[in-house]
Amino acid sequence: MPRGVSRQPAPPASDGRPAGAPPVDYVCEHCGGAEVTRDAWAEWNRSDQRWQLTTLFDFAFCHLCHRPTRLVAQPRRKG
After folding, report:
1. How would you label 36-50 residue by residue, b for 16+ Cβ within 10 Å and e otherwise?
2. How many CB atoms lie within 10 A of CB 4?
3. Is the pLDDT of residue 52 over 70?
4. Residue 44 pLDDT more than 80?
5. How many CB atoms are located within 10 Å of the residue 17 CB?
6. How many CB atoms within 10 Å of residue 74?
7. Which distant-in-sequence residues (6+ apart) come within 8 Å of 2 by Cβ?
8. Is 36 helix (H, G, I), strand (E, B) or coil?
9. Do 43 and 7 contact (CB within 8 A), yes or no?
10. What is the distance between the alpha carbons of residues 66 and 35, in angstroms, rounded to a whole number?
11. Whole-angstrom Cα distance, residue 1 to residue 75?
C-alpha cells in the first residue's frame, strides 16, 4: 500500500453541510448532468467480507458530456 494511505475505512464524504440539511444532487459543472463519478480506492475487508472505501479523490468525470469536471451541489428536486 502506498505511503500515507490509511488502512482505516474512509469517513463519509463531507461537503460541509450541517446535519439535517436538505438533500442535494451533485451535477457536472459543464452540462448539469447528474451522471457523474469520482475516483476512489477500495480495500477488501477480510473480516467483514466486503469492499470498503479507503480514499476518495477529487477527480470527477461526467458520463453525459464525457469529460473531467468539477461537481456542483444543487438542491435535490422533488419528483
Report:
1. beeeeeebeeeeeee
2. 6
3. yes
4. yes
5. 11
6. 12
7. none
8. strand
9. yes
10. 10
11. 38
